[in-house]
Predict the 3D structure of the following.
Amino acid sequence: MDISALARPEIVAMKPYASARSSMSAEGILLNANEAPRALVDEDALEGLALNRYPPPQPGVLVTRLASIYGVEEQQLLVTRGSDEGIDLLTRVFCRPGRDAVAECVPCFGMYRISAAIQGAAVVPVPRLPDERFSMDVDALCRAVQEDARIKLVFLTSPNNPTGDCLDAGVLDVILQACENRALVVLDEAYIEFSDHESAARRVGDHQNLVVLRTLSKAWAAAGLRCGTVIADPAVLDLLGRVMAPYPLATPAISTALRATDERVRRRQRDAIGQIMQQKRRLLGFLEQQQWILGLWPGEANFILARVGDAAALTEWCGQSGIRIRNFDGQPMLDGCVRFSIGTGDEMQELIDTLRRYGARA
């Protein structure tokens, strides 16, 4: 498969910018990047970080660490500023303004259509099946890709946000085959650590048109770090690198990402995920007993989607108690829906008490 045939011709033809760090070694006397020779911040406060120097564009130690965690080759991995940057890069590289399109299975994460709109690309929505617990309409998606030559990216999410359902490996195979030589399949796995499903990251080597997005924001408890990963064929990553900022990750972010993924944190992560899922079961047990709950989609992530009679009123009621929930009312196929993220045991108890009072007056 020729990945360059799917990309914008001007991106394929362009010569990428070569930064000082990407074109030469960072050792020796550094007089090639117009940097300050010394940092001005107190050295003790810097904890050994050389803030006067530009960071490596793709820090080797972090790339090695993340490749090991995700079970992929280092050349298959690009570190980005969160998954959002990966979505943006893919859209800019593969979608020509006013000519190409992305496909998404609504309801889903809103940044896919936002990135497309910014790029001037069309969005082809393929509605999920509400009567089948919002499962994907795989046949409709495959038809859309095969009938609409504009589609260059197919965005999928597993577990899906906000419905929480996962994509089975067999279904992914069908979609990959339908998209062969037509489009890239971008599988967003922001919540995969909460699921029993296996990540598709290891399958990238077998499918040139498969791209997997991962992040440290959710299960790794590092949303403030803004560190994500694009896992794909090296030909795809080469094209993304041509439009990526020369120095995407700040030096403190690189250092913190390494601390956030060390072996001690990995052990704590397993316990933390277990506690989150325990609190999810607790909240779900309560919600299942409430007559004012009109629908529930527990899913396999760290949230629960629910349909109620008045989503705005419930959101406001919770807000008056200092609890912020997500109101999805008015979004495609999500009328009356709210999403509860799972917090600590104390936070879940406050939520349950607040919902109990709401139910008593409903």
Remarks:
- The longest helix spans residues 263-287.
- The radius of gyration is 22 Å.
- Residues 65 and 305 are 34 Å apart (CA to CA).
- The longest strand covers residues 151-157.
